[in-house]
Structure formats: C-alpha cells, structure tokens
Write a structure and sequence with these properties.
The protein has 8 helices and 2 strands. The chain is an all-alpha fold. The chain has one domain. The chain is globular and about 50 Å long. 38% of the residues are buried.
Length: 230
C-alpha cells in the first residue's frame, strides 16, 4: 500500500491547480463574467438560455463547452495517455496551453471576448486532460467538485475509524489549496495588471515547458551515457 506520493506529484498538482484557479478568476472578472475552467456553469447557462430565450442565444455557451472538449481532445493527441508519469510529452502540452492563453490575451485585447473565453477554456480542457490519474487517484486540476467530494468521503470514513490512504487525502487537499490560492492570486493580479494578468500564467507555463524539456533531455542523455551510448 502506498503511504505517500513523490514530492513532484504534489508540487505539479499544486502548480497546475493554481494556474487553473488563476485563469478562471480572470475569466470571472472579465467582460463576460464566465467561469471557464469547468463546464458545469457553461452547461447550466446554456440550458437556462435555451429555456428562456431560445437556442440561438445559448450559442456562446455551447461554443465554450466545445472549446473545453477540444482542448481535452488535443491533450489526447499530444500525450496519448491519461496516467501521470514522468517522461511523457508534457512539455509540448504545457507549451500549447501557454500559446492558447496568449491567444486568449490577444483576443481579449481586440474585444473578441467569446473567442478569448473559448481559447482559455480550450487551455483548461487541455490541462485537465494532461493527467487524470495517479495510482488510482482521480486528478482534476481545473475543477474542484470531485476533489471536495473525495475529501469529504475520506473524512467520513476516517470518522468511522476506517483506514484511508493518507497520500490521497493530502493530494486532494493540495489540489484544493492550489486552486483556491490561484484564484486569490488571479484576482490580485487582475486588480494590478488588468488584462495583462493573463500573460503571467502563459509565461509560467512556457517556462515550465522548457524546464521539463531540459530535464527530460538531460535524463535521456544520462541514461544513454550509463548504457555506453554516448
């Protein structure tokens, strides 16, 4: 039985959840006042609009939903697997996510707010699908409903004196804390930087992609050297 997860799992999950919370807070504070890191709100809005004013007026919400799904599809094409494991092409995924956020920034600069929301939603969909599982634990970095449900379930089991996997509890707590602190950071950055605040996570993701690529290439080189290949 696993008693803890590697430190890189906790730090990676915290950082990705923080990015999602940050981006979602900027979308919430933006012109459209939409949450784009999860699809529940957009789907609810679409349903309400269909019922009240007709399907035509719900098109923007449906487009955001499609963009989130398209981001997940893109992740599947780039990574090819949903299990979190070092060595996969995460650097490419992070770089594409960064590019999508930069695109959202430029779209918002030109008052194309629906396009900006769609690009940001695609970035969140891509990130959420980068890694959805680690040792049987569901990892969702862009929405916290499942995370909070799992935390509550484990707390209930602990109250009944049943054994729980402590590493899972702390992993979910890390995701929740990262998302919340990302929201706080996004709100503070929005107040100081305005629309330019969106470039902060884009730059951080690009830097992380480069760092991951360097780490991966260095590891490959070390492995080849140990095998006598270099």
């Amino acid at each position: 039985m696993r008693h803890f997860a590697p430190a890189w799992v906790y730090s990676t999950c915290f950082a990705l959840a923080a990015v999602a919370g940050y981006v979602n807070s900027l979308a919430w504070l933006g012109a459209q006042h939409k949450g784009i890191s999860h699809v529940t709100g957009a789907l609810t809005e679409a349903g309400v609009r269909v019922a009240s004013v007709g399907p035509r007026h719900a098109s923007a919400s449906f487009v955001v939903l499609a963009a989130f799904a398209a981001g997940a599809v893109l992740s599947g094409l780039l990574i090819g697997d949903s299990t979190l494991r070092l060595g996969r092409r995460y650097g490419v995924g992070l770089l594409v996510e960064s590019a999508l956020l930069v695109g959202a920034y430029f779209a918002g600069t030109h008052d194309r707010f629906v396009a900006a929301d769609c690009l940001a939603a695609a970035a969140c969909g891509l990130q959420n699908a980068l890694a959805t599982n680690f040792s049987g634990a569901s990892i969702r970095t862009t929405h916290m409903t499942g995370v909070l449900t799992d935390l509550g379930l484990m707390l209930g089991q602990a109250i009944r004196l049943r054994r729980i996997d402590a590493w899972r509890f702390w992993l979910f707590a890390t995701l929740l804390a990262g998302f919340f602190l990302g929201v706080v950071a996004g709100a503070l950055a929005s107040a100081q930087l305005g629309h330019e605040a969106l470039l902060v996570p884009a730059g951080a993701l690009a830097a992380a992609a480069v760092a991951y690529w360097v780490w991966r290439q260095t590891g490959i080189a070390r492995g080849q050297a140990s095998d006598g290949s270099l």
